[in-house]
Amino acid sequence: MTGSPVQSIQPPAVPAHFQTFLAFDFGLKRTGVASGNRMLRSATPQRTIQAEGDARFAQVAERIKEWQPDALVIGVPYHPDGASHENTARALKFGRQLRGRFGLQVFEVDERYSTTEAIAGGAKDADAASACIILEQFLRNLP
């Protein structure tokens, strides 16, 4: 998959009754988390998950239980030219695992530059801030 051009992510239609979302900025060591809702079109950073493998999914399960989202949103990273790379495949796999483990619809957002934007904005937790940026971008594009 590395280096192959990627088609623009066209999000599937988001049902109108989906109002609350939990977003993830997947990373190998840390996964940023944000919660948000359709009505306000805003996101709030949550505590970053600092775990890998099954421990990561146990913490994701806790967040889902706490927030009861209608659906999940993940950031999918690409090179500036739109080509995929190793982390693109990892993020997509994470999305498939979320869908399979929790039975929730997972929406994908092109997250190029979200971490850079979070750091430039002075975020104390760049991972959680990046998850907010990803979720707010998703919410802005909803009808």
Automatic annotation (TrEMBL):
Keywords: Cytoplasm, Hydrolase, Nuclease, Ribosome biogenesis
Entries under HAMAP family matching the protein: Nuclease_YqgF
Protein name, per record: Putative pre-16S rRNA nuclease
Protein's job: Could be a nuclease involved in processing of the 5'-end of pre-16S rRNA.
GO molecular function: hydrolase activity, acting on ester bonds; nuclease activity
Family (UniProt): Belongs to the YqgF HJR family.
InterPro entries named in the record: RNaseH-like_sf (IPR012337), YqgF (IPR005227), YqgF/RNaseH-like_dom (IPR006641), YqgF/RNaseH-like_dom_sf (IPR037027)
Record-listed E.C. numbers: 3.1.-.-
A GO cellular component entry from the record: cytosol
Domain YqgF/RNase H-like: 19-118
Claim: Hydrolase is one of the keywords in the record: yes
GO biological process: rRNA 5'-end processing
Keyword Hydrolase: yes
UniProt-listed NCBIfam families: RNAse_H_YqgF (TIGR00250)
Subcellular location: Cytoplasm
